[in-house]
Amino acid sequence: MLNLIATLAVGTVISFIVFKLAVALYKKVRSPLLNPLLVTVAVIIALLCVFHIPLDSYESSVQLVSFLLGPATVALAYSVYRQRQILKQHFIPIFCGCLVGSVVSMISAYTLCELLGLGDEMATSFIPKSVTTPIAIAVSEQLGGITSITVAAVIITGILGAIFAPLMSKIFRVNNRIAKGVAIGTCSHAVGTTKALEMGELEGAMSGVSIAVSGLLTTAIVIIVSCFA
User: Fold this and answer.
1) pTM of the model
2) Which residues contact 103 (CB under 8 A, 6 or more apart)?
3) What DSSP character marks residue 83?
4) What parts of the sequence cross the membrane (predicted)?
5) How many Cβ atoms from other residues are within 10 Å of residue 222's Cβ?
């Protein structure tokens, strides 16, 4: 028991320290290419390679972090509750934005994988790439995808969203703050939401709401399609 606790503590603490250092570096440099999650992933991979640590051993040591993904997803309901007035006022635009974003994301991911000849298993693994990790894993398992590929796709999608969200807003002249938040949350989940929070409190709040709404919509669509497939 003591060995298990020590293993969990070491993996979790090291990951936390690396992430905090990555956040400090991002705050100092303010370069979108130094996204904290991207830097953390790169550093952890480097450490595993340098010290020849098996991936299975590292995964076992961060089970606590993996366990907390579930409660973190449930906590999204709180962000919806806090912004319930704005959600009521703009329910139709927010709902439609999340619905269209979710459908386009799933269809485009599946179609591109099929066009590139990656096969059905890979295609279904990429379908839930734009929703938060716990929901994406559940959807991938429902569809028979490869969960490790799904997690990688979710992380990459979030990082790209955080990097390019401000640029896309300028290119397409999206000036409405609610629209920005909904677009970011729907397309790039929690990682993109960190960028939305930098853009403004309202953008961050709407992005948080969109994570929950788009996650529910994605799950519902997959269940419906699976029933009729």
Assistant:
1) 0.82
2) 221
3) T
4) 6-26, 33-55, 61-80, 92-112, 143-166, 209-228
5) 22
